[in-house]
Amino acid sequence: MRRRITVFGGSGFIGRHLVKRLAAAGSEIRIAVRDIESAQFLKPAGDIGQIVLWQTDINDPEQVKTAVAGADAVINLVGTLIDSGGNSYAGIHIDGAKNIAAAARAGGVRQMVHISAIGADKFGASNYARTKALGEKAVQTEFPTVTILRPGIVFGPEDNFFNRFAGLTRILPFLPVFGCPLIPKITFGNENGLTIRVDLYGEGGSRFQPVYVGDVADAIVASLASPLTAGQVYELGGPTVYSYKQLMELVLRYTGRQKWLAPTPYAFATIGAFFLQLLPKPMMTCDQVTLLKSDNVVTDGHQTLASLGIDPIAAEVILPTYLSRFRTAGVRHLQES
Description:
The chain is of the alpha/beta class. The protein has helices at residues 13-24, 61-68, 89-106, 127-142, 162-168, 213-225, 244-255, 266-276, 286-292, 315-323, 329-336, and strands at residues 4-8, 28-33, 51-55, 73-76, 111-115, 147-151, 154-155, 174-178, 185-189, 195-199, 207-208, 211-212, 233-236, 242-243, 260-264. The protein folds into 2 domains: 4-145, NAD(P)-binding Rossmann-like Domain (Rossmann fold, 3-Layer(aba) Sandwich), CATH 3.40.50; 162-206 and 243-293 and 323-336. The protein contains 11 helices and 15 strands. The model has no long low-confidence stretch (mean pLDDT 93).
């Protein structure tokens, strides 16, 4: 008998990788999304009738109730980085998540997996971090045995981080390095004559532990496979911790571009974000800059991918497979020859 799983937000970045795995395992999958047309590409991942698209607004409890009806497990992948209109942080991360958990409990669903984020903190400086933490609490209250997964920056072929900055290398003469000191550090030495060293980057900004999207999808599958994950919280990070500057260096390495890494203190980034967030599709918001000020790494004492039996894949292994398309035509030709 096929296991029936409802996946909220299944057409997103993580969802497309997860659905393929669930389909390969023989599950019957119901994809709960607002726009079913945008999710049509998922149907070939399974057999006829195996993947069903279900129009659902997570802020409508009745629609959520029908989406989880008869499900054995529920997975909530829905999240947003833009706090605006119908996609407000509170509406998506708290209210919507609570609706899903409440419907799952009322519908007799046996398992639930909720995707949160590293850095979720009800006392956090950013609204994103606070609402993620409050969303976790709301879900745990409604569905106490929920498994919560907190990934860091998720990378992969469709990501919105490395792809975005790789795209900028085509049009800008520089890449920003957020979090550099406002005043450069200048040091003097006189061992072999007077030398002056100017440090523009400091520590290179906050630290990050990006995780491969395939590992996140595998973590969800592993959570569903073991009853021991019920009620547990896992933080998902890759094998390496990088500074923001090192992430930008990875972008340049795998796009084959030579660009200036521009030191960008948070104060300057906030000013730029103030104007960028006014665009219909903002590249950055002030709240995102605030979020960048905190390290985004697995914290001590938390269960990790290793706890789920997963050996994380390094960014250096995956990034060349999709950032190569941002190389100049000449460099691509040399690579392929």
